[in-house]
Write a structure and sequence with these properties.
The protein has a 5-stranded antiparallel beta sheet. Helices cover 30% and strands 31% of the residues. By secondary structure, the protein is an alpha+beta fold. It has a single domain (5-128), classed as Roll (SH3 type barrels). The mean pLDDT is 77. The chain contains 3 helices and 5 strands. The protein has helices at 11-28, 65-83, 89-92; strands at residues 35-40, 43-51, 95-105, 112-120, 124-130.
């Protein structure tokens, strides 16, 4: 049986979820809309939401198709690992489905926007919260 986040050995995943919970609480009590910020090995990644669980929208349409693909990919991978008795991989490897994502690669002025992105916890170097300016300056 798959373990919950709290039972995992993935410190980065647990820390990420705690920071995200704090961001949600702060955003409920403020006009500021902070985002979760990931420092990764390839750049800075910001996201408005971390999506948990399976895709639950009533209708699949153009606006939620990317979210459907990302959430379904994670769910199907999890099920395949369980089916082939490789659940141990889920103990210390975590992926997050992020929504409304901006990536600012190191050494580049380019900004990349994604409606959803799967970020693997082994790519996370640090986690913060707040907002970043629209440009890289």
């Amino acid at each position: 049986m798959a373990k919950s986040f709290l039972e995992k050995r993935d410190f980065k995943a647990l820390t990420t979820l705690n920071v995200y919970s704090a961001v949600q609480i702060a955003n409920e009590n403020s006009d500021d809309k902070n985002k979760i910020i990931f420092i990764t090995n390839f750049g800075i990644v910001t996201a408005e939401k971390i999506l948990t669980g399976d895709f639950k929208e009533d209708e699949l349409n153009e606006s939620n198709y990317s979210k459907f693909i990302s959430q379904s990919a994670v769910s199907l991978t999890r099920e395949a690992l369980k089916e082939h008795n490789n659940e141990d991989v889920l103990l210390d490897k975590t992926s997050f489905v992020l929504e409304n994502v901006v990536i600012r690669p190191y050494g580049s002025d380019q900004i990349n926007n994604f409606s959803s992105l799967i970020l693997f916890s082994d790519q996370i170097v640090g986690v913060s919260s707040g907002t970043l300016s629209e440009n890289n300056s």
